Sequence to fold (110 residues):
Amino acid sequence: MHWLNKFFRRKRTQSETAILTAILTGHTLRSHRDIDGNKYFYLHALDGTKEAVDGTAVHRLRQQRLIETNHKFPSATFLLTDHGRQRAQRAAGHNGSNPISAHNFTQKKQ
Fold:
């Protein structure tokens, strides 16, 4: 289990931190599939614009259970978990805000 703890405590990349803080500030992270089944990730801003993000960073955030998806096809939405919200607040240098989060969204393994 030592290697697993090290994995979860590793420092996040700039891309991962940017995604977390963007979701915290109101952007929506969504995955989209094209007709050929390729998956793309975009951050959607409140003004309707969207920006492509690194799929590897999204996968790492999911592995760390900092974000979770609603599993909708063809465009799934990712939300911050409680742990992800805390990490995003620390990365943004503040706390006490009301971000979009997936409070109790994931089930704990028994």
Notes: The longest helix spans residues 14-24. Residues 27 and 48 are 10 Å apart (CA to CA).
